[in-house]
Amino acid sequence: MGLRQGAPPRRRGADPRGGASARRPPESAGVAPRRAAVAALVAVLGGGEGIDGALAEASEGLADRDRALARAITTVALRRLGSIRALLGRRLERGYPRKCGSLEPILVTAAAQILYLDVPDHAVVDIAVSLAKADRNAAPFAGLVNAVLRRLPRGGDEAEGDPLAHDTPAWLATRWTGAYGADEARAIAAAHRHEAGLDLSVVGDAAAWAEQLDAVVLPLGPPAATTTVRLRDSRPVVALPGFDEGRWWVQDAAAALPARLLGVSAGERVADLCAAPGGKTAQLVAAGAHVVAVDRSPERMGRLAANMERLGLAPEQVVADVLALETDPFDAILLDAPCSATGTIRRHPDVAWVKRPGDIASLVELQGRLLDKAVSLLRPGGRLVYSTCSLEPEEGEGQIEALLARAPGLERLPIAADELGALAGAITPRGDVRTLPSMLPDAEPRLSGLDGFFMARLQRAG
Ligand SMILES: C[S@@+](CC[C@H](N)C(=O)[O-])C[C@H]1O[C@@H](n2cnc3c(N)ncnc32)[C@H](O)[C@@H]1O
């Protein structure tokens, strides 16, 4: 397929980032962001890169507006990839030619705009044709690009399709249907079609912040040091009131639950293992605990340090592999383990197409070892919250059942309905929490849903 083999459409001698080049005439407006979207899609689907890194590289040198357009195109192309491929496939009677360069990513990104973005169709088609002409291997098919794109439907059932069958890789659709049933799996896939709203964890008077930020307070449990508010519309984060003063940070509603459920009190010695970039660390410090934040990634710990500086918070910061950590025991530990991140597909649609079934088994093995280490670092009577932003039961429910079976001195501290407010329905029969992107429904998609997370609370015998 073109996406695996094709290179981004770059002309010999041309500036690959779409900037001004002495050797070619200036290109028409709007080409550079589309070229960047094609390159980013190739990097994600062909190179397994994350969307943020792929876009950062592909958009280098572009103006902010063009960067935003490249991001919008790439994101929607990944969100609706299955539907787009099916629609294109029906119009390519003989499939993709054998050696066609970037033909497929050019068609996919153009179709994403025609079908799902509010941009003029004629410009999209013209630019797609010019991108094809600029790629030696795709150039013979420039006429095909024009014909296929002009035959795409504008809206209607064909463009919508079934979110589970079309826009979810088959192996994930099978997993979610097995874990949650066909209806819930379809609801999860439908939630993935919408851009996630922006949630902030605010310190102090949540109602006052909600008013100032034009947001709603999410009723997710009793008052705590921090509260989640959800913005009614999309705005640049750095321009919002309170950013410079460090009074809040971006954190999905589900991601804010594990630190709340640990229930730390002022003065407790608490470890945040796998802490970076620090959303949960900030909550624990804001609650008054003495926090030791540990992560093995120096780059991610750099981001944690910058975040803590903006927020005026001062946890102890340790760059280390948790598995090699030697320290005095803790009163409480949060282990937000590395995982497949399939619960974050609303925000990161690349995850659905970049992860492979084999990734889960190796993560499960690492999570088990991190759990054993975390238990060994608890004082007698100490509490542990384990969380993952994964929809896969092996990384959540299965992990905790296995731990309880092999660690007799450990018991579950079940989560009670009044701890979760409007999310009480996310509590499992065993007293853990399983959030799904289909929860917290609202007529307005931006105000709906939350990341898919698993969390469990445990206590070491006293
Ligand atoms: C899910 S992310 C943590 C997100 C973070 N808790 C937050 O709320 O901002 C998982 C983190 O685990 C870290 N990690 C993975 N394996 C680790 C290990 N063996 N020791 C320490 N950190 C590890 C990764 O570097 C990554 O930052």
TrEMBL record:
Biased composition (Low complexity): 17-31
Binding site for S-adenosyl-L-methionine: 274-280, 295, 336
Pfam families reported for this sequence: Methyltr_RsmB-F, NusB
Keywords annotated in UniProt: Methyltransferase, RNA-binding, S-adenosyl-L-methionine, Transferase
UniProt-listed PROSITE patterns: NOL1_NOP2_SUN, SAM_MT_RSMB_NOP
InterPro entries the UniProt entry points to: MeTrfase_RsmB-F_NOP2_cat, MeTrfase_RsmB-F_NOP2_dom, NusB-like_sf, NusB_RsmB_TIM44, RCMT, RsmB/NOL1/NOP2-like_CS, SAM-dependent_MTases_sf
Any one GO biological process: regulation of DNA-templated transcription
Residues forming the catalytic site: 389
Gene3D superfamilies, sorted: NusB-like, Vaccinia Virus protein VP39
GO MF assignments: RNA binding; RNA methyltransferase activity
Residue ranges of every copy of the SAM-dependent MTase RsmB/NOP-type domain listed in the record: 184-461
Renumbered residue ranges of the record's region Disordered: 1-31
Similarity field: Belongs to the class I-like SAM-binding methyltransferase superfamily. RsmB/NOP family.
PANTHER family found in the cross-reference section: NOL1_NOP2_SUN FAMILY PROTEIN _ ANTITERMINATION NUSB DOMAIN-CONTAINING PROTEIN, NOP2 YEAST -RELATED NOL1/NOP2/FMU SUN DOMAIN-CONTAINING
Protein name in UniProt: MFS transporter
Source organism: Chelatococcus reniformis
Organism placement in taxonomy: Bacteria, Pseudomonadati, Pseudomonadota, Alphaproteobacteria, Hyphomicrobiales
Gene that this polypeptide is encoded by: sun
